[in-house]
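Q: Structure tokens for this one, please.
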Amino acid sequence: MIWVWVGFLLFIGIVLALDLGVFNRKAHAPTLREALFFTTGTIVLALLFTVFVYFAYEGHWLGLGNHVDAVDRQVNDGRLAAIKFLTGYIVELSLSMDNVFVIALIFEHLRVPLQYQHRVLFWGILGALAMRGAMIGIGAQLVARYHWVLYLFGAFLVVTAVRMLWRKEAEQEAEVESVVVRWLRKHFPVTDRYHEQHFIVEMNGRKFLTPLAVALVLVETTDLIFAVDSIPAIFAITADPFLVFTSNVFAILCLRSLYFGLAGLIQKFRYLKVSLALVLGLVGVKMLGMKWIKAWLGDDTNFWLLGLIFAILIGGAVTSWWADRQETQAQSA
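A: Here is the predicted structure, written as tokens:
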């Protein structure tokens, strides 16, 4: 089974190499058209990978689909594995949307030039993959050995969903940003101005971090914070490490490519926080009541979960659009 992991990591490495070495070799500010083009490409890749998951698990390629999933105690066949991957992908994608807004705030506060933001996001992907890979590995082992951990995850997600409705996101992230920046300036010399797209520069025989490096550390820190919420959520769907990790990777790739088109629009999604809280609460309740929900819905539980998540996100988007329209009409009246 090691070869399927090697193959996937090699594939992602090629995608990232093309991104930085071919399409974005020169620092520039990506246009909305470019952002949507690459976003469409990552979505298509995720859908094609869903097809691969179906046939790989159905045919037990390279050892896939030979083990009992610790979440639902079933062996993942092609259809079940494909649904779990797609559901995990949508869950991780939706829960990471808030992260896009926070990254936009970081870039705004640090006044990161638009043409250098892609470089920060690119290297941020590598750090995010390493951190999430470690968290997924630990989480999968815990779930496989101690099934009751799922109930802890479920309770944590429900509590997080409730807190999300009342917490002030901007103030919380500003506090995290302040702590990280103070720590960096205390332990490392940091320049006051940007040096093109360099993270480290040498001046007077000393090496200094640039503000671009500070932005990268902040992006990685916020991704770690958001991963604490999103990683447990996917264990409501599956504990198969390959499905969990690959769905996370495709979600990260999609959101980072969509950033330049979504960062400005996401602020208009006024019910984003409510939608994300409902998604977290839904998967948390699914974890807590797994036995009864499965007895009620049968083997199609994950299919219904996927449908409900779609309904929540679409409902939040439509409600936000309607509220903006009503507000615009009231102002023009």
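A few notes: Residues 114-145 form the longest helix (32 residues). The CA atoms of residues 269 and 317 lie 6 Å apart.
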